[in-house]
Amino acid sequence: MVTAAKNGAALTLSGVHKNFGGIRALSDVSITVPEGRIVGVIGPNGAGKTTLFNVITGAFHADSGSIVTAEQIITRWPPHRIARAGIARTFQNIRLFSSMTVWEHLLVAQPRQGASLRNLMPIRWANPEAARRAEDALSFFGLEPYRTAIARTLPYGIQRKVEMARALTSDPKLLLLDEPVAGMNYDEAEDLRALLVGLNQRGLSILLIEHDMTFVMSLCHEIYVLDFGAVIAEGSPNKVRNDPVVLDAYLGAEGAC
Ligand SMILES: Nc1ncnc2c1ncn2[C@@H]1O[C@H](COP(=O)(O)OP(=O)(O)O)[C@@H](O)[C@H]1O
Ligand SMILES: [Mg+2]
Questions:
Q1: Which of 98, 135, 233, 251 is in the most buried spot, having the most CB atoms within 10 Å?
Q2: For residues 102 and 121, what is the distance between their CA atoms, to the nearest angstrom?
């Protein structure tokens, strides 16, 4: 039986399978994110990386296997409970509302506000704690100049930061980032790297999907490589970078991602 052991892991996946019809999106995937670490997931297009995030966050249920945080077994939990358990995410394809300001995004995203009528009320009724967290996230990501801007009208790199700031307002223990530097230029990516290091130093554990190898290798403590839904390699950036199995998977794939 699976137990939520206090093993110093923010997240442990054991033997997770997920099929879509005949497609084996995840096959016997076991991944550990130790508390306070930044763990990377890389792999060619279609390898199952986003599916991995979807089963962790409850968007889809795993067909089998277990998903455990430091405190709880969250396998098959619905998304809102998983969010309350301290797991937040961003999306590969940015998901922002078309008519909401940056500030409004940061206020309405907070699951710990609970699902009450008050959440449907105008933003000025938000509770002070939610406003404080929104202010912190706004400031941490340097988004103050964009507070009243409609988020979807902002440059791509800023929109990505809004998504990350929104994820932070739920005060997560583990942050899942799906290709956070996609569409960012070098300077924006460097800026983001420093911000993520800062978050990690505050104790946040991070699981990160990214195709930008320089970014992944310089930021992550450990890396898992997925190919056709299976983990084909894991270890330090140095170990993974030189693994012939990994090189094969990338050379054999069009447009590694
Ligand atoms: N909702 C879904 N329905 C059917 N197939 C899906 C769904 N989501 C992902 N897949 C399939 O699962 C495989 C892995 O996809 P994905 O997790 O998006 O890969 P990656 O993020 O590594 O590019 C692909 O073959 C994809 O087509
Ligand atoms: Mg993906």
A1: 233
A2: 17
Q: Tell me which residue of 90, 106, 95, 86 sits closest to 210, measured CA to CA.
A: 90
- Check residue 250 and give its pLDDT: 76
- Is the pLDDT confidence value at 117 over 70? no
Residue 195 lies in a domain: no
Residue nearest to atom 26 of ligand 1 (CA): 46
d(CA 8, CA 71): 10
> What was the pLDDT predicted at 116?
47
Residue whose CA is at the smallest distance from ligand 1 atom 12: 25
Q: Minimal CA–CA distance to 106: which of 79, 84, 82, 138? A: 138
Which residues span the domain enclosing 100? 93-171
48 pocket-lining for ligand 1 (C-beta < 6 Å):
yes
> What DSSP line would sit under 205-236, residue for residue?
EEEEE-S-HHHHHHH-SEEEEEETTEEEEEE-
Q: Domain check: are 176 and 50 in the same one?
A: yes
209 Cα–ligand 2 center, Å: 8
What is the structure's pLDDT at 255? 46
Decide which of 148, 171, 194 is a domain's last residue: 171
Which tokens sit at 83?
Answer: 């969010």
pTM listed for this prediction:
0.90
> Using a 6 Å cutoff on CB, does residue 249 contact ligand 1?
no
Q: Is the CB of 49 under 6 A from ligand 1?
A: yes
